[in-house]
Specification:
mainly alpha, about 70% helix
């Protein structure tokens, strides 16, 4: 990196080279031709005036007062005097004073020497050495500012891309070269750390900032709070706001909005609301960002009433409601399973002149899917397309999920049809979309269609995840086809996919439903799962009891130190044989 100090040295050398020109011109001392001509002309004018006077008045005699009176009254004396003075001045100006010529001026501060073909820099005065130093220093200062601006631009780019290591290297190299980074540079460094949620690195650079004597501003503390918020530490945000006040700085609207957002991300609506009250007590008027964060906090918990309360408050204050505002309200309705309210607020959003985006529509479609309402999900998909909004992968996942929840022999076919639409639309179809389609086939009992979709998934280059494998195995498990489930298990192991409680449930279910029941295989499968530290929940324990019998299940749980216990058998099944109880349980778990 080229540093301005090099330019400062070059400027000093250039100033030193100017001095010999001054010496040469001082030694020349020759009169200029133009001044000599002016002197001769003025001298000739004075002689001519004297001659005219002598003709007009004759040569005066000694004591001839008449002649002198007429000469003076005629103004000729004044003309001769003036001509003589001008001639004398011209004579004195013919020769330069000791030193450099009068026209040699020192360059103005900050001006650059202009040299080149046909042009020469003006020679300086004798004190050029003293004058040239500030000029060179000013040029160096301009170079330093340019270098600092270049650094800040590079730091800003690194901060936006989250390249913390690059930002650190840029700032360190600049300081090692002798540069003095300012508040903006350090704040950009902190922003890069905040983007990576690296609170400890933020604190390190803040200490370096204070040690370097660089001014700490409100923006500095806001960036520290932003890092804590992204790291999920709302308490740390509050601590930094308090430190800001102790530092003598007044928190602004961004400071409070950051703390509110930190609580909102954690779903702490009460904490976010408490900080909004503190914001009002500090006589800082909340903006739309603060209210949006608070509404988001209520949406995380599915609290429709709380979200609507603050939406109405925003309207009372005439604050701008945006897509983010309404989408948070829609999300609260979706999480609460309130499809009617979600649809109503989507319509209200459109009437208010706020154009919904793909996220807004996808949230409503998801609410319909959660309510197993495939018809309404498809309706809102069509309305979205009509308004020129292209669905994304999340939209199609929600619709396919609605197909799965619809439950019926045709659901697998519907899910595959929507999968084909997603592929035709060119959206980024990921493993989640395929997994939803496979799951829909499984719940429809269409294992073969699910296997075909699974095959298409692998052929497309996507790596199946554990949820795809669990969805693939489930319909075979309901059939009791434990051989097929074991084949799927081997394929999953070959793909280095770690099992979880959902896949374990499918394995044990296949052994429980099989005829004859595969108790030993189920027990060995459960032991292997415990060695792999797979979570054992009530569903797993319940299906284990069906596979190995309740007494043996209790013994296994005691042996392996698992605190879960199988649920007691229903009273209606007390007089039945164990085979009859298994058959009843199997029928209860088989999809309709």
């Amino acid at each position: 990196m080229s540093f301005p100090l090099d330019n400062l040295k070059a400027g000093a050398c250039a100033t030193a080279k100017i001095a010999p020109d001054c010496v040469k011109k001082e030694q020349a001392g020759a009169p200029k031709p133009s001044r000599l001509v002016a002197f001769c002309a003025l001298a000739a004018l004075a002689v001519a005036l004297v001659a005219v006077d002598s003709v007009a008045f004759g040569w005066p005699g000694v004591g001839d007062s008449t002649w002198w009176s007429a000469y003076i009254s005629g103004g000729f004396a004044l003309e001769v005097a003036l001509s003589s003075c001008l001639a004398g001045a011209a004579f004195l100006r013919m020769f330069p004073a000791r030193g450099c010529p009068a026209k040699a001026r020192a360059p103005a501060a900050g001006a650059k020497a202009t040299t080149g073909p046909g042009r020469r820099s003006s020679p300086p005065r004798p004190d050029a050495g003293a004058k040239a130093a500030p000029a060179s220093g000013s040029a160096a200062s301009a170079d330093q500012k340019a270098a600092l601006l270049k650094l800040n631009r590079a730091l800003d780019a690194a901060a936006q891309s989250g390249e913390t290591a690059l930002a650190e290297r840029l700032l360190r190299d600049f300081e090692r070269a002798g540069g003095q980074a300012g508040t903006v540079s350090y704040n950009l460094m902190l922003r890069a750390c905040a983007r990576r949620c690296d609170v400890s690195l933020c604190q390190l650079w803040l200490r370096r900032m204070e040690a370097a004597g660089v001014e700490v501003t409100v923006c500095t503390f806001n960036t520290m709070m932003d890092a804590c918020s992204k790291a999920g530490s709302a308490q740390a945000c509050a601590t930094w706001l308090k430190r800001m006040e102790e530092y003598g700085l007044q928190p602004n609207v961004i400071s409070f909005a950051t703390v509110i957002y930190a609580h909102a991300r954690l779903g702490d609506a009460k904490g976010a609301e408490a900080w909004l009250v503190k914001m009002l007590e500090a006589k800082i008027e909340p903006d739309s960002v603060a209210f949006n964060s608070l509404i988001h906090a209520y949406s995380v918990k599915g609290d429709v009433e709380g979200a609507l309360k603050w939406l109405h408050e925003m309207r009372k204050l005439n604050l701008e409601t945006s897509v983010a505002t309404y989408t948070s309200v829609l999300d609260a309705c979706a999480k609460a399973g309130d499809v009617e309210n979600a649809e109503r607020w989507l319509q209200d959003m459109i009437c208010a002149g706020v154009e919904p985006n793909v996220v807004s529509y996808s949230v409503v479609i998801g609410a319909c899917a959660k309510a197993s309402d495939l018809t309404r999900a498809e309706y809102w998909h069509d309305r979205m397309v009509e308004r020129g909004i292209s669905p994304n992968a999340h939209t199609y996942t929600a619709i396919i999920s609605a197909c799965a929840k619809k439950a019926g022999p045709e659901c697998g076919e519907w899910a595959e049809r929507w999968l084909d639409k997603a592929l035709a639309a060119g959206v980024g179809v990921d493993a989640a979309v395929y997994s939803s389609a496979i799951d829909a086939c499984g719940k429809a009992g269409d294992a073969e269609r699910g296997a075909q979709i699974f095959k298409r998934m692998k052929e497309s280059g996507l790596a199946p995840n554990i949820m795809a494998y669990a969805a693939l195995a489930r319909p075979f498990a309901y059939r009791g086809d434990w051989i097929k489930v074991e084949i799927i298990t081997e394929s999953m192991t070959a793909d280095k996919i770690r099992s979880n409680e959902y896949f374990l449930y499918a394995q044990l279910l296949a052994y429980a439903v099989a005829r004859p029941r595969q108790a030993q295989r189920a027990e060995q499968c459960f032991r292997n799962a415990c060695r792999q530290m797979i979570v054992v929940n009530d569903h797993v324990v319940g299906v284990l009891a069906r596979a190995v019998g309740r007494p043996r299940c209790v013994e296994l749980l005691q042996e392996l130190g698992i605190k879960h216990r199988p649920a007691p058998e229903p009273a209606a099944a007390a007089g039945r044989s164990s085979e009859g109880a298994v058959a009843t349980s199997e029928a209860r778990h088989r999809p309709t």
